[in-house]
Each structure stands twice: as C-alpha cells, then as structure tokens.
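Supplementary notes for students who missed Thursday's class. We covered one full example, reproduced here. Read the sequence, then the structure, then the short commentary at the end.
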Amino acid sequence: MRREPARMIAVDWSGAEAKSGQKRHIWVADLWPERHERPLTLTAGRTREETAEWLMEAAAETRNLVVGLDFAFSYPAWFVREECGCGSAADFWSVAATEGESWMRGAKPWFWGRPGVKKPGEFVERPERGFRRTDREPLAGIRRTQPKSPFQVGGAGAVGTGTLRGIPLLQALRRAGFRIWPFEQPALPDAPLVVEIYPRVFTGDCTKSSAAERARELRKLMQDEACRKWLREDLLAEAAASEDAFDALLSALGMWRHREQFAHLAQAAEGDERLEGRIWVPHLGAAGRLSASSGR
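Structure (token representation):
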C-alpha cells in the first residue's frame, strides 16, 4: 500500500481579526502532481473559515495528503496542565477555542505584546517558561531566528494570535477525519495528515521582508531541477510580491522534497510532547541543509 503522500499543501496562516486582513495574508500553496494542468497553485483571498472549508474539500478529492500549518498547535505543558487543567491537547483546544479571545485581551497575565503590555517578569527571569520544548530546539542551518513564544500576541513576529485563532481550525479538521500530528497516529494514505511547520526551515536565513531578496531566493529555485518543473512565472511573481505567499510556496516545495518522511511519523509517547506538539522538521542531508535531491 502506498503511504507516501500524493499531495502537499502549505498554509501561511494569519491571526488577523478583520476578514480583509485574513484574505490578504492567508496564502495556500498546493502541490498535487496528479492535477496535470496546474500541479502547483498559490492562492489567497480566503478567510480562516473559508480556508478550513477548502482544506476539507481538498481531502474529499484525495485523502492521501499532508497539510502544513504555520502556527503553534499548543502551549507549554505547564500551562496546559496547571493553568487550564487539561490532560490532553484536545481538551486544551476546547478551552482555548472558548477562552482564547479573552486571554488575548488580558484575562490571563502571561499573554503579552498588546500595546502597553510587556513580557511578564516570570518570562524575563525564566525565559524557557514562555516556550514549548520544540520552540527552543536548534534548527540546523537557521541562525538568525527561532520560533516565537505562543504567549506573544502582538509585535513583530508574534505567533500567539494566529495560534489561538488557529486552534478552532485544528478542531474542525480533526472532526473531518484529519489526523493531527504528533497528538494522533498518522494513517496515510487513508486519512489526511496535518503537521505544524515553521517556514524558516524552508526559506533559510534570507531577509524575507525584502522583495529583492525574495526574488533572489526564487531565482535559486529555478536552478533546482526538483523545483523548476513545478514553477511558473505567475507563481514566481506572486511569491516575490508577498512574504506570505513566499513562505507558503517554499514550505510546500520543502515538504514535497521530503515527502517520504511522512510515512515514518508516529504519535508522540505519553508526556509533554503529547500536550505541546512538535514542529515538523525534515531530516537533513549530510551537509546539514535541506536536500533538493531527496525528492524524486
């Protein structure tokens, strides 16, 4: 039985409150070689709810797919257990989906980044408390950035807003039959799989905010035989013009290069990882870089 995924989708998510912001910042890169006319697409213009519906429609077309979402799937284990009273990620998602908006407005003191709200002294004295274990692990080839704390809900690079407004998506996809790794055992090709991604793993240390540098990185892709066959001029132009589109495109291509690795994923053992989740990072080649040749 074929376990290697046939379709790869990367979603550059957004925690924007306004629907106009969601439609502008949520980008979806979809690579499905069996769709011969346009095997790779790069689209925007959907709200969070519309993105959820679109992903379910994609799963109706083929169950053998992997979806990468770029927000934290949970919070540090101490917060899940002690502050929310939850013994599983699914229980925590229910609490966060109900109370997350109030947390961002100050109902819990650990959420910071809103105007006038500084990082809590506890996180200054013990920085590790503000992160999951996976957020603190070194990423090979990435020197300039690391994942932000999910407690940060405002300011540059904040992931907390997208996380708290993304957790309802995880619930909806789980109800629709998606397996959410590492909280559940993957079941490709019979059930679609969802993993947490960090786009920097795929974009490297380039200055993504610079359109010129994005264009340079995209030109490098055109020198890569594993990527060149999928790329079209319209995709390159969209990715050069938008940091969000750039992240989605490179993430989908990076996931596809290493698609054989998804067949070997397993549910996390009991413990903190079953509460916190884990960023999916592909195994790297001997040079410590993502290997373009690892995808066939």
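Commentary. The CA atoms of residues 100 and 164 lie 6 Å apart. The mean pLDDT is 92. If anything here is unclear, bring it to office hours.
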